[in-house]
Amino acid sequence: MTRRVAVLTGGVGGAKLVHGLLQIMPAENITAIVNTGDDFQHLGLHISPDIDTVLYTLSGKANRVQGWGREDESWNFMEALRELGDEDWFALGDRDLALHVVRSYRLAQGDSLTAITRDCSMAWGIGAIILPMSDNRVATFLDTDEGLLEFQRYFVESRCAPIVKQVIFRGSENAKAAPGVVDALYAADIVLLAPSNPYLSIDPLLSVPEINTALHSLRAPVVSVSPIIGGRAVKGPTAKLMKELGKDVDNSSIAAHYAGLINGLLIDSGDEAPSGIQVAKTDTLMRSHFDRARVAEAACDFAYSLGTK
Amino acid sequence: MTRRVAVLTGGVGGAKLVHGLLQIMPAENITAIVNTGDDFQHLGLHISPDIDTVLYTLSGKANRVQGWGREDESWNFMEALRELGDEDWFALGDRDLALHVVRSYRLAQGDSLTAITRDCSMAWGIGAIILPMSDNRVATFLDTDEGLLEFQRYFVESRCAPIVKQVIFRGSENAKAAPGVVDALYAADIVLLAPSNPYLSIDPLLSVPEINTALHSLRAPVVSVSPIIGGRAVKGPTAKLMKELGKDVDNSSIAAHYAGLINGLLIDSGDEAPSGIQVAKTDTLMRSHFDRARVAEAACDFAYSLGTK
Question: How high is the ipTM of this complex?
Fold first, then answer.
């Protein structure tokens, strides 16, 4: 029996989990539904950081040392941009630019982010289905001690230094799920929430009404892979943000955050299981391709074991 | 006495003449009025090939071997574009892209091509004033045996192979001269027409009514530097095009083309002087920086010698 998996994911960590899934099951059985709350306009270009990271990771183009962007990248565009005196806080690699230019051009012509992402995925031979969460604009904003900041201004320009009071998803209440998203969720035998930042990367997905409704009403088990290991986040501002939002940096907080939504939580072998939720353990740190496959397998096995609701 | 020069110019050859002027007189006395009939939209970017060539040439960034684009250029954007299966007939260098992205972004925000060109010129320390002929869209089209072609499709994609029946400047009848253009013409002590292609690079400038009227009514002498040497064009499709348009490839045709507009024609030392026009001679081929200065000086001296009308 071929089983279908839908994964809700943000960028780096989530992309690794999807890459792990690709190693253990037929690509066509995998649908990755990707956060677009981080999308923004920069120098007139439409940039979709999480979709880009997923596309680069699954096509083997991701820069694994840097954690974002492409391998074998060059930076001559940025150098020329600085010569012109233009803002250079967001780094755009020469190769990376191709995706942004093509995407922006096609969006301006009326093509959807869904169609553009699909074509790019096909051009790069990615078998899995990659869907933006929505073709409508949902923008993550941070209410901070330095005022209201658009996600990339907080994340990249301010390096997550401002203290966050609240995370806001503008436009989500009127956003439709992208074509295929709701169908993929209902068709899935299991649904995974990737080990992406719950507040910044998964919550935007959950803020889209159709996605939220589907997740609460489908019969397939939903398993979250925890982004917390030993009281710390693997990467990025998760731990800092959790503290600022008044949460303990542990799996109880993750379980509480996803309460009513998930049926199980996959946590790191060394961590204590929170109460009130089904838990499985594995080494959740994904350093190698093998790690990715192992974590993906552990998440799938765990989800299958939970059975339908 | 400080004398002011206005130059009507296209890309490569004209840029060399302006660069020559910069070597023999104060930069602030030079105004280059640049053809924008070649401008086009590509992948959503606004590209101004002749302005780019002038900017790159005057700031020392031009690729002198290639004849277009920048030195020390890299092509990783193009490689990534091809991976995506996108059209690659127009080469965009990684550094070159910065200018296109910034220009497109600023135009979309409502800035004028004049303002953008000025800021770029200032950022790169170019003292001369560089003006687009118009902030309105004038588009050069070629009526050919292969149908109506936009300039870059003819020039770059089709490598000038189609046989041209007519050259058309769409939008010119309603185009206003860019701010500063008419003033610069009237303020000039001499006006030069650069050795750019008369039909493809200078005629678009002349097709703008205010520019045409100013050139016909100003008292300053107007001198054209011929693009023909020994019955051949120095570069590009000039000779082929002249034949297709039923002209002899010689200076008589150039003089006839500019009849009523120019007061003098600067031709190559080895060429025969056409009748009915004042002529001066120099070695008009501009291979070195020294050649550029020499031709610029010969053109200026000749123009000064003609006196006001």
Answer: 0.92
Retrieve residue A298's tokens: 């552990």
Q: How far apart are CA A26 and CA A229, in angstroms?
A: 29
Question: Phi and psi dihedrals of A202, rounded to 5?
Answer: -90, -40
Distance CA A191, CA A214 (A): 11
B69 interaction partners in chain A (CB closer than 8 Å): none
Q: Which residues pair with A62 in a beta bridge?
A: A70
Identify which of B74, B99, B104 has the shortest CB distance to residue A74. Answer: B74
- The number of residues making up chain A comes to 309
> In b/e form, how buried is each residue of B272-304, taking b as 16+ CB within 10 angstroms?
eebeebbbbbbebbbeeeebbbbbbbbbbebbe
Residues of A in contact with B126 (CB under 8 A): none
A148-161 tens-digit pLDDT = 999 999 998 999 99
Q: Show the tokens assigned to A249.
A: 């940096």
Domains belonging to chain A, first-starting first, are 5-40+113-306 (3.40.50.10680)
pLDDT in tens, B165-201: 999 999 999 999 999 999 999 999 999 999 999 999 9
In this complex, do A123 and B81 lie within 8 Å of one another by their Cβ atoms? no
Structure token pair of residue B216: 């016909």
DSSP line for B104-148: HHHHHTT--HHHHHHHHHHHTT--SEEEES-SS--EEEEEETTEE
Q: Which residue from A43, A93, A102 is facing B84, i.e. has the nearest CB?
A: A102
Select from B70, B72, B84 the Cβ nearest to the Cβ of A120: B84
Under a CB-based contact definition with an 8 Å cutoff, are residues A204 and A48 in contact?
Answer: no
Contact at 8 Å (CB) between A59 and A156? no
pLDDT in tens, B293-304: 999 999 999 999
B77 and A84 in contact by Cβ < 8 A? Answer: no
* Min Cα–Cα distance to chain B from A83, Å: 7
pLDDT band at A262 (very low <50, low <70, confident <90, very high): very high
- 8-state DSSP, A259: T
What's chain A's Rg over C-alpha atoms? 18
Question: b/e map of B80-95 (b: 16 or more CB within 10 Å)?
Answer: bbebbebeeebebbbb
Q: Residue B101, class by beta-carbon neighbours within 10 Å (0-12 exposed, 13-18 middle, 19+ buried)?
A: buried
Query: What does the block give as tokens for A60?
Result: 């083997």
Chain-chain contact of B44 with A108 (C-beta, under 8 angstroms) = yes
How many contacts, defined by CB atoms under 8 Å, are there between A and B? 98
Task: Check B95 against A77: CB less than 8 A apart.
Answer: yes
pTM of the entire predicted model: 0.93
The Cα B269–Cα B252 span in angstroms is 15
